[in-house]
Design goal:
This protein is an alpha/beta fold and about 220 residues long. The protein has nine helices and seven strands, in the order E-H-E-H-H-H-E-H-E-H-E-E-H-H-E-H. The strands form two sheets. The chain has a five-stranded parallel beta sheet, with helices on both faces. A two-stranded antiparallel ribbon has the order 5-6. The chain is globular. The structure holds BIS(adenosine)-5'-pentaphosphate.
């Protein structure tokens, strides 16, 4: 089953994708995490993506599509995957459909996690992330020991692109370039809106309920 998690920056896509992929044994493909991993390892892809990410802009479609296509070709993605942060433009959505079609598959469901803009800013400014991409929040999801990951104890860090000016630009870019995908998937009958203002646990339950419905 291939699921696309849609929603603005800070809506909780990464948080929910980690919980659901664990619960369902699905591979979690986060385009942002793959870029950050490449950046950490100073690969040519990471270095090319850096400027765009620092400005809160989208990395060009050709680079992003090639990267996700490569990830989807791996053995752990043959039975399904949870896509978080991809697609983000109409060209990426078309490329995803074409890639899945080549594999004899298709997108089964697109949960759209909606959260008002003011709340997004509060969430992103209080977010702390582990080296392995686990996500915490000072108020809504604090780690057991301040500044340390609950799972491996590694130090948490604040993402460069969570600075207020960059967050504002990321939201603007989302509104301009990604919101057309809401209608795109609605027209295909795949979109289900999820109220992302509920607690992390409640949003997780709502998401699992819509996924189970599609599985039946
Ligand atoms: P990416 O890493 O994908 O960032 P994003 O989409 O902006 O999303 P975030 O990771 O910021 O938010 P999220 O929705 O995952 O929220 P989270 O669960 O962390 O992309 C980063 C950059 O990479 C882009 O700007 C771009 O440059 C590039 N890029 C990536 N993909 C690309 C693509 N396809 N094309 C081109 N460029 C691309 O939650 C946020 C906070 O809120 C956390 O602290 C969490 O604990 C808290 N929280 C979560 N849920 C709740 C809740 N229900 N209640 C209270 N708090 C909550």
């Amino acid at each position: 089953m291939y699921i696309v998690l849609l929603g603005p920056p800070g809506a909780g896509k990464g948080t929910q994708a980690s919980l659901i992929s664990e619960e369902m044994g699905l591979s979690h493909i986060s385009s942002g995490d793959i870029f950050r991993e490449n950046l950490k390892n100073e690969t040519p892809l990471g270095l090319e993506a850096k400027g765009y990410m620092d400005r809160g802009e989208l990395v060009p479609d050709d680079l992003t599509i090639a990267m996700v296509k490569d990830r989807l070709s791996k053995p752990d993605c043959q039975k399904g995957a949870l896509l978080d942060g991809f697609p983000r433009t109409p060209a990426q959505a078309a490329a995803l459909s074409a890639t899945l079609e080549e594999m004899g598959k298709s997108v089964a469901l697109v949960p759209y996690i909606s959260v008002p803009e003011q709340e997004l800013i509060e969430r992103l400014s209080g977010r702390w992330t582990s080296q392995t991409g686990r996500v915490y929040h000072v108020k809504y999801n604090p780690p057991k020991v301040a500044g340390r990951c609950d799972v491996d104890g590694s130090p948490l860090y604040q993402r460069e692109d969570d600075k207020p000016e960059t967050v504002k630009n990321r939201i603007k870019v989302y509104l301009q370039q990604t919101t057309p995908l809401i209608d795109y998937y609605k027209e295909q009958g795949l979109l289900v809106e999820i109220d992302g203002t509920k607690s992390i646990e409640e949003v997780g339950k709502d998401l699992l309920a819509v996924i189970e419905k599609v599985q039946q």
